[in-house]
Please model this.
Amino acid sequence: MSKPRFQLPKLYESQDGWGPTSDVIPLKFQDIPYAPYSKGDKLGRVADWTNPDAQKQDNREVSGRTGRPGFNRFNRDQHQAYGAAFASTFAYTHTEDESSFSVVDNRSAAAKKMAIKAAGGQRGRVQTKQAPTGGSGFRTVNQRGGRQQQGRRKYGYKDYDKPQRVRNASINVGADWKMLDEIEFSRLSKLTFGIPEAEDVESYGSINYYNKAYDRVNTKNDKTLQHIERVKYDTTTSEDPIIQQFLQDNKATVFATDAVLSLLMCATRTVYPWDIVVKKIGDKVVLDKRPGGVFDYVTVNENAADPPAETDKDTINSWSALSNEATYINQNFARQVLDNKTPHTFAKPNPFASEDTKDKLASCGYRYRKFDLTSSTAEEDAERMYLMVRTEVDAAIKMGGQTSLMTVRALNEFDPNAQGAGNSLPWKKSLDSQRGAVVAAEMKNNAAKLARWAVQAMLAGADQLKLGYVARQDPKNNNRHVILGTQAYKPKDFAAQMNLSLNNGWGIVKAVADMCLQLPEGQYILLKDPNRPILRIYAVSSEDLEANDEDDEEEGEEETDKDN
Model:
């Protein structure tokens, strides 16, 4: 039996450089140059009948400056960086006239692409059929998982190719305004401060009790939204007579309303532009709002991937029209779900009512509460900082034999298939059976608005946050609405569900208060950049603010004339 033998192969040494030596190359390959290769090189196609325009696509995407083809999903497998220069050696050269040659498939390029797309879309689909929608059209029903696709757009593909949306600032920035500082949202999101305890100082007004019959409302037993005339005062901080008295009595250092404070605490979630008027009066700071500004309106789908746009083609679904619609819905829903029985009264009557309006007042309670924002390093009482906030509650409810306070808000649906709908489920079909999915979509599309509502409820010391679901009776008509359901939350649980950090919110308030206290006496504007996540503070004069307010009033009158 012979033993196994192992023999080393013959090694050839190349004196001229890298590559094979001339004495081992067969004669028929002598004239072919050596083409290096790597395992990353891709093989091309011998013939591609499915994409005849691929070469044209590559030619269109060549950069004029560098001459390199742009990367896309068509040519990503065709880049051969190593040894690609020798490809021309093996290229086929046309020696005959081929102008008379034509492919049997004479369909247009667009028709071929549609056929390829349709063929690719059938992969992985279990079964599709056409089912009636209840109207004149049909919808495709995908039976895999039982989920229905009714013209809902899928986001992500070619979203990079959209034009950049440019928004205008909430206030006209004057050329002579002096910018004092700017703060990025990334810095604001890292701030933190301990949650201070609230101290009740005064309470005014009266509130009606919640009508529990609206807890039984659902999509099959809906209620028509009614228009109810009531008067509700939302006076600015500096014009509030109670706060003016507190300012004279030196009850606090910083003064604000819950609307202004909640916006500051949730600033990092906001997308739309806004502004806050800062008034430094002696050693006190007043955080104010401008009449007719962003605080008087409710936003819709501000945080959606493709938020509503301002367009003349579809006016009822533009962001300004949707904001007016949402504001109208919130006002009337909060009035409709209350009963007209004996109200719950606070210690003092409404401070803003007059003889003409005292019988037409909406249900509202004003609670003035004080928070201690003193830093842990403060040693003397003179260094203590207190924040006085005017908070609001909308209703009362009997729970366990005791009266609890409640804030009432309404979410609204306009058209599930319109731009800015946020890929949400249609409420009339999904609210009862898939409420969790509906709420999750709202928390995503309206993260800033819902966070502000939760913060306002906690600032006011409310035990419940009552949310209503209001939809258009007809998606093409924004004048008639129906109430499809209600839901109650504990404000702290709702904030935790939204992953809202109260410590970060109070950290932002503390940082802004400290910054404003260091400013000289005067008026300033804290402005959120309309297109970037940045806060800026400008020094302005009272004349500039008055001029802006007059411009806003004129624009509002022009819009009213157009609507009429």
Remarks:
- The CA atoms of residues 188 and 508 lie 6 Å apart.
